[in-house]
Amino acid sequence: MRKNKITDLFTIDKPIIQAGMAWCSGWRLASEVSNAGGLGIIGGASMQPDVLKKHIQKCKKATNKPFAVNLPLLYKHVELHIDTIIEEKVPIVFTSAGNPKVFTTRLQEAGIKVVHVVSSVKFALKAEQAGVDAIVAEGFEAGGHNGREETTTLCLIPEVSQAVSIPVIAAGGIASGKSMLACLVLGADAVQIGSRFIMSEESSAHQNFKDYLLKVKEGDTKLSLKKLTPVRLLKNAFYKQVTNAEAQGASDEELRVLLGQGRAKQGMFEGELEEGELEVGQVAMSFHKIQPAQEIVQEIWTEYLQAIEKIR
Q: In the predicted model, what is the mean pLDDT of the chain?
């Protein structure tokens, strides 16, 4: 493939980026994606500072290719994580859920590229003004935390691409080479894929969760908790608790108490499928197998090249 803004910025071979998903994206997954020519990301949101440091060090031993760390800026250990990232010379950081102005300059002064995740044109412009090197524009279809505007990827990418001059990475509902090509045609320079990499052999998601995703059907996920922090959830007993609480007018604090019981870890990492929080994108309805991460990257890449040939 001809080089583009993102492959040049990150010095990677393929414009395929694995999302840094809490509880699912450790060093094994990140290093395998990077070794396959994409960009692997360690999900720092679910890690204590000492755990993140170990994952970074193991990732550096497992690959000589660039990799990144994903860091929600509202995370309680963010300052310690920033120190670790700089100390360990992580080449790229993806930030989200907060003001990108806070740490961007400090990270860049340490030689680190900074990418910020947004869900609207408004916040894309703010991220550009904050000086980030690139942005991830994430549509409503995505798993995990999402935008209140419910703007789909198909609508979001062309608008963001026209509004900013920095590189744009498309995310939300992308799991194939065909959807990758569509996003690049719409103006993105690369794609970020999360949910499909949950289904990799190397992801740290519990096997129960992976097996459960093989049974997901259309309509089995729903964007919830828009009053607090929007998140796309699989429908289970915990989802029903959230829905009932919202219907009864629960306060922000009551919702935080409901969420603050280690539900995400319980569901995705420990495999409790009813009482745990299960985050995944709408695209999970198309999952049919669990594969090695490098095979997933290559399959997406091959399908992308075949899709180009088909429309020529």
A: 93
